[in-house]
Amino acid sequence: MAAEGQSSIDALGQFVLEPALGPIGHFVNFTQANLMMVVASALVLGLLWLGMRPRAMVPGRLQAAAEMCYETVMNMCVEQIGHEGKKFFPIVFCLFFFILFGNFLGVYPYFFTFTSHVANTLALSSFVFILVTFIAIKEHGLHFFSYFLPKGVPVALAPLMVLIELISYLSRIVSLSVRLFANMMAGHVMLEVFGSFIVMLGLAGGIFFIPAGLSLAVNTMLIGFELLVATLQAYVFAILTCIYLHDAVHLH
């Protein structure tokens, strides 16, 4: 936000990490990003626990929402990975809703979007990469390395193809992390800029109330768009994880 008494806009200031929980945060280096991770995890667990506690034949709203969450991710795993996808359901489910709730939290005032920091998204993508590689080696042994040399490739082109496939495989870490981080960061920068315009034009008074009102309308639409992007980015991360797991299980 624009600082009081200044006309400048510090759109990146919202991403600065600060210790949370007072002296405890200072001592253990516990920032607001860590706090939001705990909150996101608690919200997911709370939704599932409260939703499934009734176990009614005719589900209420919370139970219907919990069941819909379960079915959506389960169908995603089975459709993308195959029948083997059922055993990977818990991992994909946790990743999807952890990222989704983390994305949503940042839209609300006084909250923080931990997925807007590349260190956090890189940690998530590195976990997926290591998991997929471990599963592939466990399932196929040394045959896993044939993944980097497709069948039918001429011997003369083999070194080049292996290099290309290896770079493509390693780039999964970057593509997963940067896509999520960049989209969330860009969305919040836009919200910050238009929000600052509203404050600056409102403080100017007079005829500037008209463009301030227009900026408020635009910012409201951007919030809706940001919620859509937050959902899509969580879905993309989960669906790509399923695709990578499919490659690890079926090796193609």
Helix/strand/pairing category: mainly alpha
SSE arrangement, N to C: HHHHHHH
User: From the alpha-carbon coordinates, what is the Rg to the nearest angstrom?
Assistant: 22 Å
Oligomeric composition of the shown chains: single chain
Give the count of structural domains: 1
* Distance, first to last CA: 49 Å
Note down, in words, how this protein is organized.
This protein has 252 residues and is mostly helical. The chain has one domain. The chain has 7 helices and no strands. The longest helix has 47 residues. It is globular and about 75 Å long. The N terminus is likely disordered.
State the main characteristics:
252 residues, mainly alpha, 7 helices, 70% helix, 0% strand, globular, disordered N terminus
What is shown here, in short?
With 252 residues, this protein is an all-alpha fold.
Helix/strand layout:
Layout: H1 23-28, H2 32-52, H3 61-81, H4 89-105, H5 118-140, H6 158-204, H7 209-250
